Amino acid sequence: MSHSPDKILITGASGFVGRLLARAEMERGNTVIGIHDPQESPDLPFESKGVDIRDKKTLQDFITSLKPQRVYHLAAISSVRMCQENPGMCFGVNVTGTLNLLDACSKLDEKPRVLFTSSCEVYGNVDPSHQPVNEDTRPAPINVYGLSKLMGEEICQFYMREHGLPIIISRGFNHTGPGQTESFVFPHVARSLARIEKDGQEHVLKMGNLSVIRDVLDARDVVRAYMMAADKAKPGSTYNVTSGRCISIEEGVRMLVEISGLKVKIVQEASRMRTYDIHQLHGDASRIGKDLGWRAEITLEQTMKDLLSYWRAKEGVS
Protein backbone atom coordinates (compact mmCIF):
# COMPACT_ATOMS: atom_id res chain seq x y z
CA MET A 1 0.00 0.00 0.00
CA SER A 2 1.52 3.34 -1.03
CA HIS A 3 2.13 6.01 1.57
CA SER A 4 0.55 9.37 0.84
CA PRO A 5 3.07 12.22 1.09
CA ASP A 6 3.27 14.18 4.32
CA LYS A 7 2.90 17.95 4.24
CA ILE A 8 6.02 19.26 5.93
CA LEU A 9 6.74 22.80 7.10
CA ILE A 10 10.35 23.89 7.54
CA THR A 11 10.98 27.24 9.19
CA GLY A 12 14.33 28.73 8.26
CA ALA A 13 14.03 26.85 4.98
CA SER A 14 16.48 29.08 3.11
CA GLY A 15 19.26 28.42 5.61
CA PHE A 16 22.16 26.01 5.34
CA VAL A 17 20.53 23.05 7.12
CA GLY A 18 17.01 23.97 5.98
CA ARG A 19 17.93 23.48 2.33
CA LEU A 20 19.58 20.12 3.03
CA LEU A 21 16.59 18.97 5.05
CA ALA A 22 14.08 20.08 2.42
CA ARG A 23 15.98 18.21 -0.29
CA ALA A 24 16.10 15.04 1.82
CA GLU A 25 12.38 15.17 2.61
CA MET A 26 11.47 15.77 -1.04
CA GLU A 27 13.66 12.83 -2.07
CA ARG A 28 11.45 10.54 -0.04
CA GLY A 29 8.31 11.91 -1.67
CA ASN A 30 7.05 14.38 0.91
CA THR A 31 5.64 17.83 0.14
CA VAL A 32 7.82 20.58 1.59
CA ILE A 33 6.69 24.12 2.26
CA GLY A 34 9.16 26.57 3.71
CA ILE A 35 9.16 29.77 5.69
CA HIS A 36 12.02 32.17 5.08
CA ASP A 37 13.00 35.68 6.14
CA PRO A 38 10.71 38.09 4.26
CA GLN A 39 13.72 40.33 3.55
CA GLU A 40 15.24 37.53 1.47
CA SER A 41 14.33 36.33 -2.02
CA PRO A 42 15.91 32.87 -2.02
CA ASP A 43 15.95 30.66 -5.11
CA LEU A 44 14.54 27.44 -3.67
CA PRO A 45 13.37 24.25 -5.43
CA PHE A 46 10.21 24.12 -3.30
CA GLU A 47 7.42 26.45 -2.23
CA SER A 48 8.48 28.91 0.46
CA LYS A 49 6.84 32.02 1.87
CA GLY A 50 8.50 35.05 3.41
CA VAL A 51 7.08 35.26 6.94
CA ASP A 52 8.49 37.07 9.95
CA ILE A 53 7.90 34.56 12.74
CA ARG A 54 7.75 37.45 15.20
CA ASP A 55 4.49 38.52 13.48
CA LYS A 56 2.00 36.38 15.38
CA LYS A 57 -1.09 36.98 13.22
CA THR A 58 0.62 36.48 9.87
CA LEU A 59 2.28 33.30 11.09
CA GLN A 60 -0.92 31.94 12.61
CA ASP A 61 -2.90 32.63 9.43
CA PHE A 62 -0.25 30.83 7.39
CA ILE A 63 -0.16 27.77 9.70
CA THR A 64 -3.97 27.61 9.89
CA SER A 65 -4.20 27.63 6.10
CA LEU A 66 -1.35 25.16 5.58
CA LYS A 67 -2.26 22.54 8.23
CA PRO A 68 1.15 20.81 8.20
CA GLN A 69 1.53 17.26 9.50
CA ARG A 70 5.12 17.80 10.56
CA VAL A 71 7.06 20.94 11.47
CA TYR A 72 10.82 21.37 11.62
CA HIS A 73 11.53 24.59 13.51
CA LEU A 74 14.96 25.69 12.31
CA ALA A 75 14.39 29.46 12.03
CA ALA A 76 16.71 31.28 14.44
CA ILE A 77 19.45 33.82 14.79
CA SER A 78 22.17 31.17 15.04
CA SER A 79 25.28 33.35 15.20
CA VAL A 80 26.53 33.47 18.80
CA ARG A 81 28.26 36.78 18.06
CA MET A 82 25.17 38.37 16.50
CA CYS A 83 23.00 37.30 19.44
CA GLN A 84 25.53 38.69 21.90
CA GLU A 85 25.62 42.02 20.08
CA ASN A 86 21.84 42.29 19.60
CA PRO A 87 20.02 40.34 22.33
CA GLY A 88 16.69 42.02 21.57
CA MET A 89 16.68 40.70 18.02
CA CYS A 90 17.87 37.30 19.24
CA PHE A 91 15.07 36.93 21.78
CA GLY A 92 12.54 38.28 19.28
CA VAL A 93 13.30 35.57 16.73
CA ASN A 94 14.50 32.67 18.89
CA VAL A 95 12.05 33.05 21.77
CA THR A 96 8.99 35.03 20.62
CA GLY A 97 9.13 33.40 17.19
CA THR A 98 9.14 29.95 18.79
CA LEU A 99 6.24 30.91 21.04
CA ASN A 100 4.23 32.17 18.06
CA LEU A 101 4.90 29.02 16.03
CA LEU A 102 3.97 26.57 18.78
CA ASP A 103 0.88 28.57 19.68
CA ALA A 104 -0.31 28.46 16.06
CA CYS A 105 0.37 24.71 15.83
CA SER A 106 -1.47 24.05 19.09
CA LYS A 107 -4.66 25.58 17.65
CA LEU A 108 -4.88 23.12 14.74
CA ASP A 109 -7.50 20.36 14.98
CA GLU A 110 -4.85 17.79 14.04
CA LYS A 111 -1.70 18.79 15.87
CA PRO A 112 1.53 18.32 13.87
CA ARG A 113 4.66 16.64 15.20
CA VAL A 114 7.21 19.38 15.85
CA LEU A 115 10.99 19.11 15.95
CA PHE A 116 12.53 22.05 17.81
CA THR A 117 16.21 22.57 17.06
CA SER A 118 17.88 23.68 20.25
CA SER A 119 21.65 23.80 20.71
CA CYS A 120 24.55 22.42 22.72
CA GLU A 121 25.10 26.05 23.77
CA VAL A 122 22.44 25.52 26.45
CA TYR A 123 24.99 23.51 28.47
CA GLY A 124 27.47 26.37 28.91
CA ASN A 125 30.89 25.72 30.45
CA VAL A 126 30.80 22.22 31.93
CA ASP A 127 33.80 20.96 33.90
CA PRO A 128 35.77 18.60 31.61
CA SER A 129 35.61 15.95 34.33
CA HIS A 130 31.80 15.91 33.82
CA GLN A 131 32.03 15.51 30.06
CA PRO A 132 30.84 14.15 27.70
CA VAL A 133 27.57 15.88 28.50
CA ASN A 134 24.33 13.94 28.18
CA GLU A 135 20.75 15.17 28.03
CA ASP A 136 20.47 15.10 31.83
CA THR A 137 23.39 17.51 32.31
CA ARG A 138 22.03 20.68 33.89
CA PRO A 139 21.86 23.54 31.34
CA ALA A 140 23.73 26.70 32.35
CA PRO A 141 24.19 28.89 29.25
CA ILE A 142 26.93 31.54 29.27
CA ASN A 143 25.84 33.50 26.21
CA VAL A 144 22.68 35.09 24.86
CA TYR A 145 22.25 32.51 22.09
CA GLY A 146 22.39 29.59 24.53
CA LEU A 147 19.94 31.35 26.84
CA SER A 148 17.51 31.98 23.97
CA LYS A 149 17.58 28.29 23.02
CA LEU A 150 17.01 27.19 26.61
CA MET A 151 14.02 29.53 26.79
CA GLY A 152 12.76 27.95 23.56
CA GLU A 153 13.01 24.53 25.20
CA GLU A 154 10.96 25.75 28.17
CA ILE A 155 8.28 27.03 25.80
CA CYS A 156 8.25 23.58 24.15
CA GLN A 157 7.79 21.90 27.53
CA PHE A 158 4.86 24.23 28.28
CA TYR A 159 3.08 23.50 24.99
CA MET A 160 3.61 19.77 25.41
CA ARG A 161 2.29 19.83 28.96
CA GLU A 162 -0.60 22.28 28.59
CA HIS A 163 -1.68 21.75 24.98
CA GLY A 164 -0.60 18.19 24.16
CA LEU A 165 1.54 19.33 21.24
CA PRO A 166 3.88 16.45 20.27
CA ILE A 167 7.36 18.02 20.30
CA ILE A 168 10.84 16.53 20.09
CA ILE A 169 13.86 18.63 21.09
CA SER A 170 17.24 18.21 19.43
CA ARG A 171 20.39 19.75 20.91
CA GLY A 172 22.68 20.07 17.94
CA PHE A 173 26.42 20.28 18.46
CA ASN A 174 28.68 22.21 16.10
CA HIS A 175 28.02 21.16 12.53
CA THR A 176 29.44 22.28 9.24
CA GLY A 177 29.64 21.29 5.60
CA PRO A 178 29.32 22.58 2.04
CA GLY A 179 26.81 25.43 1.87
CA GLN A 180 27.40 26.87 5.33
CA THR A 181 28.05 30.63 5.29
CA GLU A 182 31.49 32.07 5.87
CA SER A 183 30.36 33.69 9.13
CA PHE A 184 31.23 30.35 10.77
CA VAL A 185 34.82 29.40 11.43
CA PHE A 186 35.51 26.44 9.12
CA PRO A 187 33.70 27.87 6.05
CA HIS A 188 35.55 31.14 6.71
CA VAL A 189 38.87 29.30 6.60
CA ALA A 190 37.87 27.28 3.52
CA ARG A 191 36.84 30.44 1.65
CA SER A 192 40.05 32.21 2.69
CA LEU A 193 42.14 29.29 1.40
CA ALA A 194 40.23 29.27 -1.90
CA ARG A 195 40.85 33.01 -2.30
CA ILE A 196 44.54 32.58 -1.54
CA GLU A 197 44.69 29.94 -4.29
CA LYS A 198 42.77 32.12 -6.73
CA ASP A 199 44.27 35.55 -6.14
CA GLY A 200 47.62 34.78 -4.57
CA GLN A 201 46.64 36.78 -1.50
CA GLU A 202 48.97 36.93 1.47
CA HIS A 203 49.30 33.40 2.83
CA VAL A 204 48.06 34.32 6.30
CA LEU A 205 44.96 33.19 8.18
CA LYS A 206 43.92 35.61 10.92
CA MET A 207 42.03 33.72 13.60
CA GLY A 208 40.45 34.12 17.03
CA ASN A 209 40.75 31.59 19.85
CA LEU A 210 42.32 28.45 18.39
CA SER A 211 42.31 26.48 21.63
CA VAL A 212 38.51 26.19 21.83
CA ILE A 213 37.54 22.50 21.68
CA ARG A 214 34.41 21.49 19.82
CA ASP A 215 32.47 18.32 19.07
CA VAL A 216 32.06 18.70 15.30
CA LEU A 217 29.88 16.78 12.86
CA ASP A 218 28.63 17.01 9.29
CA ALA A 219 25.35 18.81 8.63
CA ARG A 220 24.23 15.94 6.41
CA ASP A 221 24.41 13.64 9.43
CA VAL A 222 22.44 16.24 11.41
CA VAL A 223 19.67 16.17 8.79
CA ARG A 224 19.44 12.38 9.10
CA ALA A 225 19.11 12.76 12.87
CA TYR A 226 16.34 15.35 12.52
CA MET A 227 14.38 13.15 10.14
CA MET A 228 14.76 10.03 12.28
CA ALA A 229 13.67 11.97 15.37
CA ALA A 230 10.68 13.47 13.56
CA ASP A 231 9.74 10.01 12.24
CA LYS A 232 9.90 7.88 15.34
CA ALA A 233 10.99 9.69 18.51
CA LYS A 234 8.61 9.68 21.44
CA PRO A 235 7.11 13.16 21.97
CA GLY A 236 8.81 14.87 24.89
CA SER A 237 12.19 13.35 24.06
CA THR A 238 15.37 15.43 24.03
CA TYR A 239 18.39 14.28 22.02
CA ASN A 240 21.97 15.38 21.71
CA VAL A 241 22.92 15.36 18.02
CA THR A 242 26.66 14.95 18.32
CA SER A 243 29.55 13.03 16.81
CA GLY A 244 31.28 12.32 20.11
CA ARG A 245 34.61 13.35 18.55
CA CYS A 246 36.34 16.53 19.66
CA ILE A 247 38.91 18.72 17.97
CA SER A 248 40.36 22.11 18.74
CA ILE A 249 39.67 24.90 16.29
CA GLU A 250 43.39 24.87 15.53
CA GLU A 251 43.27 21.17 14.57
CA GLY A 252 40.33 21.82 12.25
CA VAL A 253 42.06 24.78 10.63
CA ARG A 254 45.29 22.82 10.14
CA MET A 255 43.31 19.95 8.60
CA LEU A 256 41.83 22.34 6.02
CA VAL A 257 45.25 23.85 5.30
CA GLU A 258 46.74 20.37 4.81
CA ILE A 259 43.94 19.37 2.43
CA SER A 260 44.50 22.58 0.44
CA GLY A 261 48.20 21.84 -0.04
CA LEU A 262 49.03 25.49 0.65
CA LYS A 263 51.74 26.81 2.95
CA VAL A 264 49.88 29.22 5.18
CA LYS A 265 50.78 31.05 8.36
CA ILE A 266 48.09 30.92 11.07
CA VAL A 267 47.97 34.02 13.26
CA GLN A 268 45.87 34.34 16.41
CA GLU A 269 44.66 37.92 16.97
CA ALA A 270 43.55 39.19 20.37
CA SER A 271 40.87 41.39 18.75
CA ARG A 272 39.12 38.25 17.48
CA MET A 273 38.96 36.53 20.89
CA ARG A 274 35.49 36.20 22.48
CA THR A 275 34.80 35.95 26.20
CA TYR A 276 31.41 34.34 25.62
CA ASP A 277 32.71 31.22 23.86
CA ILE A 278 32.37 27.87 25.61
CA HIS A 279 35.94 26.61 25.97
CA GLN A 280 35.33 22.89 25.63
CA LEU A 281 32.23 20.83 24.89
CA HIS A 282 32.07 17.09 24.27
CA GLY A 283 28.70 15.44 23.69
CA ASP A 284 27.29 12.00 24.45
CA ALA A 285 25.14 10.56 21.65
CA SER A 286 24.17 7.36 23.51
CA ARG A 287 20.47 8.19 23.84
CA ILE A 288 19.82 8.94 20.17
CA GLY A 289 21.84 5.88 19.22
CA LYS A 290 19.87 3.62 21.54
CA ASP A 291 16.41 5.04 20.80
CA LEU A 292 16.66 5.80 17.09
CA GLY A 293 19.71 3.91 15.81
CA TRP A 294 21.42 7.12 14.67
CA ARG A 295 25.12 7.84 14.72
CA ALA A 296 27.37 10.23 12.83
CA GLU A 297 28.70 8.50 9.69
CA ILE A 298 30.61 11.10 7.68
CA THR A 299 34.24 11.49 8.74
CA LEU A 300 35.55 14.90 9.69
CA GLU A 301 38.18 14.60 6.96
CA GLN A 302 35.48 14.06 4.33
CA THR A 303 33.48 17.01 5.65
CA MET A 304 36.53 19.28 5.40
CA LYS A 305 37.35 18.05 1.88
CA ASP A 306 33.78 18.71 0.73
CA LEU A 307 33.78 22.12 2.42
CA LEU A 308 36.98 23.19 0.67
CA SER A 309 35.73 21.82 -2.68
CA TYR A 310 32.54 23.86 -2.28
CA TRP A 311 34.43 27.11 -1.70
CA ARG A 312 36.94 26.39 -4.45
CA ALA A 313 34.03 25.99 -6.89
CA LYS A 314 32.33 29.13 -5.55
CA GLU A 315 35.53 31.16 -5.95
CA GLY A 316 36.23 29.73 -9.41
CA VAL A 317 39.33 27.77 -8.45
CA SER A 318 39.90 24.85 -10.79
CATH class of the largest domain: Alpha Beta
Report on the biggest sheet: 7 strands, parallel
Q: Uncertain runs with pLDDT below 50, 5 residues or more? A: none
CATH topology term of the largest domain: Rossmann fold
Report mean pLDDT, rounded to a whole number: 94
Overall morphology:
globular
The helix-and-strand class reads alpha/beta
Quick one: how many beta strands? Answer: 13
> How much of the polypeptide forms β-strand, as a percent range?
15-25%
- The portion of residues assigned to helices is 40-55%
CATH superfamily assignment of the largest domain?
NAD(P)-binding Rossmann-like Domain
- Could you say how many structural domains there are in total? 2
Query: Strand-and-helix sequence, N→C?
Result: EHEEHEHHEHEEHEEEHEEHEHH
How far the N terminus sits from the C terminus, by CA atoms, comes to 48 Å
Q: Tell me the radius of gyration.
A: 20 Å
Strands of the widest sheet, in order across it, are: 3-2-1-4-5-6-11
CATH architecture of the largest domain: 3-Layer(aba) Sandwich
Q: Count of DSSP helices?
A: 10
Q: Topology of this structure?
A:
Layout: E1 7-11, H1 16-27, E2 31-36, E3 47-50, H2 56-66, E4 70-73, H3 80-85, H4 87-106, E5 113-119, H5 144-163, E6 167-172, E7 175-176, H6 185-199, E8 204-207, E9 213-215, E10 217-218, H7 219-232, E11 238-241, E12 246-248, H8 249-260, E13 265-268, H9 286-292, H10 300-314
Parallel strand pairs: 1-2, 1-4, 2-3, 4-5, 5-6, 6-11, 7-10, 8-13
Antiparallel strand pairs: 9-12
Helix pairs in contact: 1-7, 2-4, 4-5, 6-8, 6-10, 8-10
